[in-house]
Amino acid sequence: MNRFRRCQITLMILAVTVLFQGSVQAEKTTLFVAPDGNDQWSGRLADPQQNDGPLATLDAARLKVRQLKATNPAVNIEVQIRGGTYPLTETVVFDTRDSGSQDAPVIYKAFPGESPVLTGGIEISNWKKCAKDPAGVAPEAKGKLWVAEIPGAPKQKWNITSLYDDDTLLKRARSNGFKYAEVEKENDFNRQGKKLTSVLEYEGEPVAPFDRSVHFRDEDIKDWPNLSDIELTLKDRPWLVNIIPLERVDTQNRIAHLAVDPTYQTISPNNRYWVENAIDYLDEPGEWVYNSLEGRLYFWPEGDINDMHIVAPFLQEFIRVEGTEDGPFVKHLHFEGLTLTHGLRDSLLEGDRGLQHDWEMHDKGNAVLRFRFAEDCDVASCLIKSSSGTGIRLDLHCQRIKVTRNHLHHLGGGGIVLSGYGPGTKDVNKNNVVHDNYIHDIGELLLHSAAILVAQSGHNEITHNTIRDVPYNGIVVSGCRPHEFYLVHRIPFRRAWVSSIRFEECEPFIKQGLAAQYHNRLDHFLPLLHARENRISKNDISRTLLKLHDGNAIYFSAMGKDNVVERNYLHENRGTAGAIRLDDNPSFTIIRENVITESEQGLGLKGAADVSNNFIFTETFLRGRSLPGWLGGTKKVDPVGNIFMPPASSKSSSGLYLTDSRATERPFYENLPKMEKSIYFTKNGSAPYSPKANLGSDLFTGQRADLNENSVKLVYADPMFDEAAAKQGLYRFRAGSPTEKLGIKPIDLRDVGSSLAERNFNGLDAEVSNELGRQVVFSFTNNTPFDQSGIHASMTVDGITMSTVDIIDIDGITKGSTTSIHAGLNAVGVVSASGKGDGKNFDVGEAWVFQFDENISSLKLEIDGLDEADGFTLSFPDGADEFSAKISGSSTSNGSFVLERKIPAGTPIHLELSAGGIARIKAIKITP
Predict the structure, then answer these.
(1) Is residue 858 helix, strand or coil?
(2) 570 in Cβ contact with 602 (< 8 Å)
(3) Higher per-residue confidence, 922 vs 679
(4) What is the pTM of this model?
């Protein structure tokens, strides 16, 4: 055979081999799951046919896939799940035997054109009208309750903590806000860690366990027979809400004991708490309570109960993808197009380990979909809704997991959590993708929940997500603050962070910190903090902080270096401490090409950052508490190419000032850190917005700026935005703009956010969005109608009247017209009839009760003289409940407190100074 012929045969053999290998790789098996299926069938048919057809459950499909993979690992398997509802009472756990491969992944997806629904809830349909009212029921509910028996509930240890009518969360019975008894509690070290290291040495015996006692007044808390069902909602900090069951009650001494530790001690008698799930407080239509001792659910329906589809969440974790620690890991599992609903709410348990401030738990199965020890998996185009816990978690070792195009809404907990190992050298939660997700209306039960939380996880892509309508933070990137490391011996049971510290790995770094001059420098611990080099880009975040305070659209604390925040659109985030915030102990962060508008604060920075080419349309563009030279830190990066444009419509007094207690009376250029080639401009002609300088001057020198020079700092000039383009999300400039010579680049946000959500750009000067409506400002001076006036004193601005309902004297007694509101020092104080106090300010115990004659949707208080020792309590009736908020120097932004909440006309708003002194109300801004 000649050489040519041999070559022909060889090529033919190779071609046949390639074709054969291609056919093996292309081999595909499709299985089907349907509500009318049978787990004894083959699953090869989409519809039932005689004695064969689809499988009935997801778990049966998992086992069938495992069998197929065991015989042919190269087979490409797709499980198509037909439309319908699939109740789950046990978690479906996928382990390494259920893995796919890169060439042959295993895919669980919705059947084309259909919507399969996995529910962790149990339908409650056996309702009967109560023949006899339960003991203790509120008078309003007598004769109106329905009851459902819950068979086996005590045996199952099933505690119903939430209830739905289809997708609608029903309201659990809740008391009005109660005040704690005025009892001086001992210091049990149940405070923030940064306050403990000043009183606790690193070495020494562990301190006493946390104080779980709540001292109450009158009969606010009772020794109910089903005590473990009763929960207290504790809101002792502006950034956190605990919901904790009772363990026992001492009615004689009025002390209630909680079943688990609160995050912080309940210490202020002026704070309020609420009692939930007690029959005494079931007093209006739509409310329910659950009694596990009786195994009964009581409900007062608003309409015909026969028209309702009532579901009680039973299962917390629906799907868990879990390999083995340190490998092998589960790989190449994909979930697509599934709906998950009615998951159980998370409850604090003994042994839980918390992340920062207990905003989330460390390594806990409280999400409906969870990955743990997994790699190269996907969850795409899923809908997670009307569920009481968290949506998706990536715990411990998770790498190259993609979470894309999912819609998460109306959740009791958070949206998406990436949580690695506790502080230590183990760095294995990284390189994940959270992209194109739409997250809104989360944190309905656990108000402190974040839409996206990244803890001890790095090198992730968090891009093109839309986040809106959340009670607290939008995106959180967090690690362990230095002081927590020094508490591991003294308070080893402390839930938030300390309990998850990997001590043996951390001990050398702790000793290094102890030996240093400054113990609390983050540099000592950076190798242990793995939330580094995350890229947060092209996200659309709005309407954060709807329920809590001291939060942000994007929040960082104690994280690793070189996180990047770029090209995000942040709008309508009111009352923040900076729409983008570097809180305590941050490391170097890159903040570039972001647009921030319709907010009071632009940036809140407590650490080093590269701040470049950002466009900030807020009243105060930079908030910080450090000396002017710190920004940039050791990397010596000056802010460059930023544009600061406070809105023309704003009436705030912030303007050109850095919001620092030392800086309110000095012009901004004496308080800002260094900056280069930046622009300041506003159309607001009033002080302090318009600087006393000519257009074209450098505000740092007062001299005309030569834009061709490299020495330009901050130019007072119109950047000449193309306003029509800005309304489309393209922030570019007209010809002749000074930005060209300064090197400032346009920012294109037209594709910002998720493809699942609509985009809304309000342009340049949108201090008040269409949704929030007009702003009405009541400013107080010596010439206002309140001066020396008592109750019934009123003021009308823009057709809206604010009137004084009551005035409470310094001794807590209503004095009526004999006590007066006094507008002095261009602010409101209270004049006591008793003669106590100074008559210029509010004094502790004094209160002003006022109301408006129109409905309002937001309220902003501007407070003068408020420092960290001062504290106001603002409260008002909210239906059958009472809303209460604590206002302090640490919870306000430059003395401004913002409440985004609907308040009906005629609602008495009670404002009382609870601590401190010399505080006054400068102005009240409302949104009708």
Answers:
(1) strand
(2) no
(3) 679
(4) 0.83
